[in-house]
Amino acid sequence: MRVGILTSGGDCPGLNAVIRGAVLKGTTVYDQEFVGFLDGWRGLVEGDVMELDRPAVRGLSHEGGTMLGTSRFGPYQGPNGGAARIAEVLERLGIDAVIAIGGEGTATAAQRLYDDGIRIVGVPKTIDNDLDQTDYTFGFDTAVEIATEAIDRLRTTGNSHRRCMVLEVMGRDAGWIALHSGTAGGAHAILIPEHPETIEQVCAWVCSVRDRGRAPMVVVAEGFRLPEMAEGYSTKGRDNLDRPRLGGISEVLAPMIEQHTGIETRATVLGYVQRGGVPTAFDRVLATRLGMAVTDLVAQGQWGNMVALHGTDIVPVHFDEALADHKKVPLERYLEMRVMFG
């Protein structure tokens, strides 16, 4: 069987480890052959591929990014898009099945292609860890590690100047990166999209820290909003999915905190640093296991499914189940940490 692999949507550490795991197990156990579609769905639509054999994936597990490239291009986009045209491309290239590695948008597109008759399976990917039906997604642990290191570094400069430091991390609809990195870094307040807080409450926590002779550290997810805000803060227009391009809420909060408390306050937006660099050991192992497991789905013909982590086991989950709900931070998880704020 000849299988095509693509990586779509935002990049994240661990994508190359998935590709390596799939190629090594697929070729060894199932005698599968692999090609990679370049730049996500665009490569599938246009038939732009590269051969993937054992030498091609040698040493990939520790490398960040994706050797195949990625894009926000959709499989139904453009004059050559759509399931019928894609089926023609697959037949012309002698490709029997597709493995799509990506987040919610990729899974949604894969579900539609499956419904339209394309033999496709998936691997979940997002640093936000917000895909339902999988306990963790690769890339999340790396993003948390990077954010935690940033907290540690900001704390030293904050302590030196007795400033309040506000660190903004990624998290449009789910605050998992902020919650985990803020907890690991000992933040004095963690602000996430799921559970808005008033500026008065944030400043009360900041003042409590100052009154103990400490320099306050606040971690905020990019999608956080104050109760009076209708949506997340954005000044950068809208993305290809017609969502506001978030970013900059820390730069809104910092002057408000300084005005309310009199404490000199500085904001740092961590941004795409969270997506870059080499994956952590945890993400390398998880990504490798997911890549190996997805070849089982192909061999068994379990089309329309993705692989997911349940506890320590890798299990198949149908796209419909995976897309049913976003995995957001539950109130009890937030309240568990909130008692330590201030």
From TrEMBL:
EC supergroup of this enzyme: transferase
Statement: the UniProt record of this protein carries the keyword Transferase: yes
Pathway given in the UniProt record: Carbohydrate degradation; glycolysis; D-glyceraldehyde 3-phosphate and glycerone phosphate from D-glucose: step 3/4
Protein name per its UniProtKB record: ATP-dependent 6-phosphofructokinase
Amino acids binding substrate: T126, I127, D128, R163, M170, G171, R172, E222, R266, Y272, V273, Q274, R275
Taxonomic source organism: Speluncibacter jeojiensis
Family assignment from sequence similarity: Belongs to the phosphofructokinase type A (PFKA) family. Mixed-substrate PFK group III subfamily.
InterPro entries documented for this protein: ATP_PFK, ATP_PFK_prok-type, Phosphofructokinase_dom, Phosphofructokinase_III, PKF_sf
An annotated Gene Ontology molecular function: monosaccharide binding
Phosphofructokinase domain: residues covered: 2-297
UniProt-listed Gene3D superfamilies: 3.40.50.450, Phosphofructokinase domain
